[in-house]
Amino acid sequence: MVMKFQKTLSEHQLLLHRGNTSTLQINIGRLCNLACRHCHVDAGPGRPEIMGRKTMSDVIDFARRFRFQVADITGGAPELVPDLDYLMQELRPSVDKLIFRTNLVLLLQDRYAPLLRLCKELQVAITASFPSTNANQADSQRGEGVWQGSIEMLKRLNAIGYGLPGSRLELNLVANPTGAFMPVEQCRAEKKFKTDLARKWGIQFTNLFTFANVPLGRFHRWLEQSGNLTHYMDRLAAGFNPATINGLMCRSLISISWDGFLYDCDFNQAADLPYTGERIHISSVTHLPQETPIVTEDHCYACTAGAGFT
Q1: Can you give the residue range of the structural domain that contains 25?
Q2: What is the pTM of this model?
Q3: Dist. CA 202–CA 60, nearest whole Å
């Protein structure tokens, strides 16, 4: 039986409090062309939740007021949200680094060529989901044919300078396990990915990040339906690593939902656990307090198991 996360913290005499908030993560919608099995926000075709231009303007104003080091745009598939180019252009002068997350395959469409040109012009770091160098494994998680499209898009990104040695255009890959098990150790996985992609397809990238799947949304339902939920939660809890606490992303990140409300992280957003326990809209925020408690639930075990989600 899984031990409650807050109780685990107490038994290790640990507190999970916010430090200096330097990263602004913006989830601009749950609309997506894919319906990946591991998706914690339940993104997919037909989802109506997308960020409007008024909320984008509030986000831009918020970023200007608090001067974050990093702005991280995620979804769903951000490409499907109108005015994404406006959000990027207005955010970029306010942050040292702008990250754009993509599932790669949408970018294959000709209509996204201007977006790619804008990313290059603004030196936006691209972070792409790419769970495996094995086509069958990747497609089992993301859908038939997605792996092949991803390979083609990675080649195109290399062709415009992304991910090449010495390039200022970062191309980072994110690999989540394709089932109810823990991720491979990151350094070992990165070495394998770089070797396989370079040897077989001539593809290069900057960094690989490996993370455990968070038991929320579609992944939670799959765990229940497949009979893996209890076993998976027990594995996460058994892997709790107290050394991860100080470096957890929620200590230095604030998350904004598609409708402009604050959360400690994208996972709490998916679980509908608002920042400080109250629904606070960014337009009403006058300061970002430090050392406030992070709202936690048992899905937090996914970020603290093994090497953690930092």
Answers
A1: 20-228+243-294
A2: 0.95
A3: 38
Output the pLDDT for position 288. 84
Task: At 91, list the tokens.
Answer: 């955010």
- Is 310 domain-assigned? no
Q: What letter represents residue 238's amino acid?
A: A
Number of separate domains in the chain: 1
In a domain, 237, yes or no: no
Q: Average pLDDT over the chain, rounded to whole?
A: 94
Is residue 11 domain-resident?
Answer: no
Give strand pairing partners of 208.
173
Contact status, residue 193 vs residue 208, Cβ threshold 8 Å? yes
First to last CA, the chain: 26
- Nearest 5°: CA angle at 133, between 130 and 137? 85
CATH number at residue 79: 3.20.20.70
Low-confidence ranges of the chain (pLDDT < 70): 1-3, 310
Among left, alpha and beta (phi > 0; psi -120 to 50; other), residue 259 is: alpha
Helix crossing, 217-225 with 229-238: angle to 10°? Answer: 120
Specify whether the CB–CB gap between 107 and 133 falls below 8 A.
Answer: no
What sign has the CA pseudo-torsion 155, 159, 165, 170?
A: negative
Q: Of 22, 9, 3, 143, give the one whose Cα is nearest residue 71.
A: 22
Q: What is the DSSP string of 127-191?
A: EEE---SSHHHHHHHH-TTHHHHHHHHHHHHHHTTTT-TT-SS-EEEEE--SSSSPPPPHHHHHH
In the prediction, which pLDDT does 141 show? 87
In a domain, 7, yes or no: no
